[in-house]
Write a structure and sequence with these properties.
single chain, about 325 residues, alpha+beta, Alpha-D-Glucose-1,6-Bisphosphate, Chain A, domain 4, 2 domains, six-stranded antiparallel sheet, four-stranded antiparallel sheet, 9 helices, about 25% helix, about 25% strand, elongated, signal, Lipoprotein
């Protein structure tokens, strides 16, 4: 791993981290390096390589990230650390672009499989070929999330610090997962990620104004607020009379998040999530509402609205306004 400096974007990260101050230096973080990320993020399963007894496959698996058929899940990191080095790891985590990283929760339906990673008949998902070095030792598993786009960097930094005392992985997702995404080049990914998604704000605001035919502002008759927070661009939208989906006579609400992701290897994407979409139960000619929305899943009108926004942002990416080569 080359010793590259992360200082050019340390200031942007400080704005996003909850306790970034004089004592919190980010100089030790493994910086974004496309060649290194490509080499260490290959789909790999050491267990099967050993069965097939192919030394070339085993060599490729050294330091790799095991993910599912659909790639690596956005933002998630799992680390199993020897109890003797737990505090050292926590000190490192305080310097990394981590949103939260705490001991895995036995009550969480997914995290509980990592609570006892060395017990049972087999390693939990993702840890085949990773935890053998920790067998017979007292360990503590940590589950957490990184700031958008820093999953690979955090895993590499933990592995470099821990050696034989830490097993760190990215969690995988299954085949067929289809979140709304735009493909990014490596320079675009770095430019968006390192600036906390701010380069996306202007094209998104312009796209919203074109789609709704109204200025993107918050008034007594609408809400249109676009902010950058913790590495994501967030848009809160509330419009009457079908401005979002064309359904005249209804209040409509949508919430969007845009953030860069690195699903695997040399694949870089921009995720466009819409976790909240709703149509107001009351007629659109009433005053601006504050509650009473009916949540919708996979609604065609909101999906079309999102596709229109993504097309406009894609145009900004293609013409070099964001992260040009």
């Amino acid at each position: 791993m080359p010793d590259l400096s992360i200082r050019p974007f340390a200031a942007a990260l400080c704005l996003a981290l909850p306790s970034c101050g004089i004592a919190q230096s980010l100089s030790d973080i493994t910086p974004f390096d496309p060649a290194v990320m490509h080499r260490t993020a290959r789909y790999c399963e050491r267990h099967w390589n050993e069965i097939y007894d192919d030394p070339r496959l085993s060599e490729l698996c050294v330091g790799s990230f095991l993910c599912g058929d659909g790639g690596c899940e956005t933002g998630t990191v799992i680390a199993v650390v020897a109890r003797s080095r737990e505090e050292e790891m926590r000190t490192l985590l305080a310097r990394l672009p981590v949103e939260d990283m705490t001991p895995c929760d036995p009550g969480d339906p997914y995290e509980r499989q990592y609570v006892d990673p060395l017990g049972g008949d087999g390693a939990p998902f993702g840890f085949n070929g990773q935890t053998e070095k920790l067998e017979g030792r007292e360990v503590v598993p940590y589950c957490g999330k990184t700031l958008p786009g820093y999953e690979a960097d955090v895993v590499v930094a933990l592995r470099q610090m821990g050696g034989d005392d830490i097993a760190a992985i990215r969690r995988g997702i299954g085949a067929g997962a289809m979140p709304a995404q735009l493909r990014l080049t490596a320079p675009q990914f770095a430019a968006i990620r390192d600036a906390g998604a701010l380069p996306l704000r202007a094209p998104l605001v312009a796209a919203l104004e074109t789609a709704t035919g109204l200025p993107c502002e918050t008034t007594a008759r609408q809400t249109c607020a676009v902010t950058a927070e913790r590495g994501r661009l967030k848009a809160r939208l509330l419009f009457p009379d079908g401005a979002l989906t064309g359904r005249a006579g209804h209040w409509e609400e949508a919430y969007l998040e845009l953030y860069p992701t690195n699903p695997s290897g040399d694949l870089y994407e921009l995720s466009v999530d819409m976790p909240i979409t709703a149509i107001r139960r009351w007629p659109g000619d009433r005053r601006k509402p504050v509650d009473g929305f009916q949540s919708l899943d996979r609604d065609g009108g909101f999906a079309a609205f999102r596709q229109g926004l993504m097309s406009a942002v894609s145009d900004a990416l293609e013409d070099g306004r964001i992260g040009g080569e």
